[in-house]
Amino acid sequence: MKIKTFYIKTFGCQMNERDSEIMAQSLGKFGYQPGTDLYEADLVILNTCSIRAKAEQKVMSLLGYLRKAKTKNPAMRICVAGCVAQQEGGRIIKRMPHVDLVIGTQNIYKIGTLIEEVETTGKQIVTSLEDDYVIPHVLPEIAITKSNDSSMDDSIAPPAYAKFVTIMQGCNNYCTYCVVPYTRGREVSRKNNDIVDEVKVLVRSGVKEITLLGQNVNSYGRTNKVSDSATYNFSNLLRDVSQVEGLERLRFTTSNPKDLTDELMQCFKDIKNLCPQFHLPVQSGSNAILKKMNRKYSVEQYFDHVEHLREYCPEIALTTDVIIGFPGEKDEDFDATMKLLNDVRFHGSFSFKYSDRPGTVASTFEGKVEEIVKSERLAIFQKRQDKISLSRNQEYVGTIKRILIERCGKDGCRGRTDTNHIVHLENCSELKGGEMIDAKISHAGQHSLQGVTSK
Ligand code: 5AD
Ligand code: SF4
Rounded to the nearest whole angstrom, what is the distance from the C-alpha of residue 179 to the centroid of ligand 2? Predict the structure, then answer.
């Protein structure tokens, strides 16, 4: 029997990256093996993102190319998974009739069965969101794999010794610009024991670092029961996971500032393997805009959080997300965002031009900011951030940092500090992925550091 191959192209966030791993594992049980070429695979899966229009356009243009590949090889099966699949559903098949399966964010666990159904019935299938969804408990079987597994898109693939674990799905916050509540459904948390079991399996197979994933981890356990204790929350989960023997580093993402508690901030002081790094999206430095975004916190409250975090953990590296040019953003609102950037001096940030998403409240707002103005403001913001990142990075020069090695090759070694800074090592030899070493930081760039090790 001919072995069938699959190729998964992942767009978007870490959540999608983890979902792609789950689909790969599920397909293995149905006799599929990872292929090396998107256009030659028997099953092509595009795991898509719809957070901004650009991400969605990329998917549509790739589907156009795949139409040609399928004309040459009619046995090729094409699956659109993830957020675009969830939002567009059957409309994808109307626009792209060569697509065989449209599989929403909750149905990735069923990919094997669904693709079999496509094969036996010859019919196209479209899945939809469920109201009473429970995240299935699937223990990872993967041992350490290469960081850039050829069947996955390697741009956001996590290094082999650092893995993502999904702790919750969906979001109930309805920030006015955001499609996530529509593409990932209502917020559901996984049981604490399932999460701890998954972490144990990963650590036993050699994983050193775990990042817990959710759209808003601070509200873990709020909408459904996750343990015997009615008050079990994200801080409890962090403490439980941190105690898994052999786990060197623990991280989490993402947090909404409105739900950030003192109890959680205290964890940075108490939990030894919780990395001193925090991604806390602020989105805007203007209270008027935050209100229109339905973020439910003020700039002053955000500052308070930053101050407290730095009290609990002085070495903490803070990063953020910012949306530039939200409807109604005036010069003074943008100036307020610049002031926030200058005052907090984030170690790094992800900044995006506001993008209208269908179905969101903000897409109906008046006062849309012109594209050219958005671009100008974004350039100003990013230029300033680059300067700040460089000066932040320069603070590390001369210090000794513990590095988790990700890969080591002819062109040198690459690893990460606990603050999540990438470090290129100059003079190392024969270090292995997953090894932890000390290195002296010798040079700082805007986006990475260089280090020297005696190993
Ligand atoms: N336009 C621009 N950026 C957006 N984000 C979410 N929705 C939009 C949108 N409609 C950004 C936010 C979020 C990050 C993941 O993507 O900053 O934190
Ligand atoms: Fe989107 Fe807001 Fe939920 Fe984050 S918290 S996923 S920005 S709705």
Answer: 8
Round to whole Å and give the CA distance between 224 and 100.
Answer: 34
- Give yes or no for a cis peptide into 254 (omega within 30° of 0): yes
For residue 326, is pLDDT > 50?
A: yes
Please tell me the distance between residue 43's alpha carbon and the centre of ligand 1 in angstroms: 31
Give the model confidence (pLDDT) of 395-410 as tens digits.
999 999 999 998 887 7
**From the alpha carbon of 351, which atom of ligand 1 is closest?**
17
| pLDDT tens digits along 235-276 | 999 999 999 999 999 999 999 999 999 999 999 999 999 999
Angle of CA points 164, 168, 169, to nearest 5°: 105
Q: Which residues are near ligand 1 (CB < 6 Å)?
A: 51-52, 177-178, 281, 283, 321, 323, 352, 354-355, 357
Is the CB of residue 63 below 6 angstroms from any atom belonging to ligand 2?
Answer: no
Please name which ligand lies nearest the alpha carbon of 176: 2
Residue 327 forms part of a structural domain: yes
- pLDDT value at residue 43: 95
Q: Whole-prediction pTM value?
A: 0.91
Look at ligand 1, atom 2, and give the residue with the nearest C-alpha. 354
- Regarding whether 271 and 169 lie in a shared domain, the answer is yes
pLDDT in tens, 351-392: 999 999 999 999 999 999 999 999 999 999 999 999 999 999
**Segments forming the whole domain that contains residue 331:** 162-394
Crossing angle (nearest 10°) for helices 192-204 and 234-242:
30
- Does any domain span residue 269? yes
Query: Which two three-digit tokens encode residue 48?
Result: 């898509």
* Last residue within a domain, chosen from 374, 394, 414: 394
Q: Closest residue (by CA) to atom 16 of ligand 1?
A: 51
The backbone region for 66, taken as left when phi is positive above 0, alpha when psi lies in -120 to 50, beta otherwise, is alpha
